Known about the structure:
By secondary structure, the chain is mainly β. It is built from three helices and 18 strands. The strands form two sheets. It has a 16-stranded mixed beta sheet that branches. A two-stranded antiparallel sheet has the order 16-17.
Amino acid sequence: MVLRNLLAAWLVLLTTAFAGGVATADENVSAYSVEELVAAATEQLTSVESLDSRYSIQYGDSKAPVRCRYARSGSMWNYTELSTERGQEKEKTYCCDGSLIYAFYVIRQQTGKDKWSIVELQEPRAQGNLDPERLLGERLSNVSRSIVDVLKLPSLTKSEETLPDGTIGIRLLARAVPRAIAGPKQLKYDVAVTLDPKHDLLPREILITESGDNVTWPGWAHQWKILQYRQSLDERAHRQRWFPVSAVLTQGTTKAPPPIKMTVDEVRINPTLPLTLFRPNIPNGAGLIRLMRARCEVLGCGASTNCSEVGMLGKCYW
């Protein structure tokens, strides 16, 4: 009971010491046990149940950054790349309603008659592109786990690390973490996350390397470094909270390509999002292609047999 009360008080301290960049009691953070730190960090990371963000990704020395939108609500998600093509806005979208992935692009026209590509229907899977939740450790490269899952593993070790602003951060290290997705060779990785006490114990750095007993690419590392945070409104809790808005990703060996930079321009935390963001209103007559085997009712044709079809909305062929 004493430990529970202590942890509760710590969480209150973390979630109320915000305005003006005022630090939490980071001078005392090293006194907390691994279990308390994991519980506090998990509370912060799992409290984001929905997200809507607009951001850009600069791939190395490329001239123009890629403009993106990413949204999630529970297991539903939307990833859209935004570009300008011949003076018209083009949206390349992958979205998932939990049952299907819809892959398509739309060219927006001033007449209001937008041009749709053929819509691909795919089996549901995790979102695989770079998005701001990567900065929270939501989906770790190669490990195919979230940082919350990794922090639950036994034999976690704790150490202190001085952050660029002089704050004492906490580094949690999990060794020999197996991939969540089994393969022909079960590779294992060491995962280290440095938590920032001044910013709700959010990750300041996430480092993934191959474990010593199964190195396949000497010197390989996958590293996110958070450069900046900003306070945003949590629309469910009705309070301000920190969110990472600038980060750099490096991946590979010492001869790795130039780093990738992500800049978050807008973010809404725990908003209520429309279902059409994850299950688009496909216009009548749009072409559909199913890259899966499933029941035809998905297209509304009423057939009860399994099929693989190409057709128009409301029609399929088998």
